[in-house]
Amino acid sequence: MDLVDSERLYNLLRNKYVLLCGDSIMRSIYKDIVLLVQGQNRLLTNDELRAKLDDHDMLTLNDQLLAGDKKTNDTSYYERRCYFTNTHLIKFVFLTRCFSSQMRNELREIEENKSIVPDVILLNSAIWDITKYEKNSERDYAQLLEECFRSIRSIIPPQTIVIWLTATPFSKNACGVLDETRSEKKNFLRIRIFDINTFSSQLAKKYNFQVIDLHYLVRKRTQHRCKDGMHYDAIIHREITTHIVRYIECGLNKNLSNSYNDDQDNNLICNDVIKSIINKIDYQITSDDKEILDKYRSSNFNFDMIENLNEKEKAVFYLLDHYENNCFQ
Predict the structure, then answer these.
(1) Residue 224 burial class via C-beta count within 10 angstroms: exposed 0-12, middle 13-18, buried 19 and up
(2) Structure pTM?
(3) Largest alpha-carbon pair distance within the chain?
(4) What is d(CA 91, CA 94) in angstroms, rounded to the nearest whole number?
(5) pLDDT for 110-157, tens place per residue?
(6) The domain that contains 138 carries what CATH number?
(7) What is the DSSP letter of 89?
(8) Residue 280 and residue 282: Cα distance in Å, rounded?
(9) Contact 36, 9 (CB under 8 A)
(10) Rounded distance, CA 229 to CA 187, Å?
(11) Domains in the chain: how many in total?
């Protein structure tokens, strides 16, 4: 896959307003986009990927911290950033919940100031929702996500491109936002995230949003996962940015022949823009995954709950175990 460069992204987003709302994965996507838009044709450094709020390594982005001053892994965390020039407006809002007060405020601001409406909205939210709000977390997530999508659709004009990004896979020893989550529950959440992603993707499709399934894109790329077991390196983030660019180009009716080679991968991506990636995934288990499952059944699991899982959940567990123990490109 040919990765996007700064000139291509600069021109694509020229005179555009891009709003990104989500967790730390989305913050890294924001950083990579801002880095490219200002002409820096390089990857983010590890320090830049980890930086937040007013950390020194955020200075290279030449953006502004609009709000946020406390580093914490609880639900009070807040961060609002903006990169603004006479040709580009790119804004990031950290969400600890899909329809948090921060998300509501952003939508209220858009509704009240209709002269400044995003041309592109990128959204993700799942891990915080289902780990930091314990009581009925999945049920509440489902209700709040629908309320969030309904509100977006009622406020945002139809020409705005809205892209939902699914939650990425994480290791059984993941830390950060999952620091306080018990090991057994982390293992179970690695399985549950398949169903949660499927639900959120189908809901996004219902509201005519596009879907980029990050779990599908990076699940085989565990060698690019950071030491915290939760985040991914700069190469993965440049690939994610490239996929986002392709979706935006398709949505803006750009001439695809100028950007793509006529290969199967590009045809699939453009096809996804038309009918959403969820249509070609059977609950996010692809035909390639099924071939692996037919050959691979591990009995060496340190997971007490394995006997309590249904067949689909066991298949997901086998699959994740295979990818994490067999790193390949």
Answers:
(1) middle
(2) 0.86
(3) 59
(4) 10
(5) 999 888 999 999 999 999 999 888 777 899 999 999 999 999 999 999
(6) 3.40.50.1110
(7) E
(8) 7
(9) yes
(10) 12
(11) 1
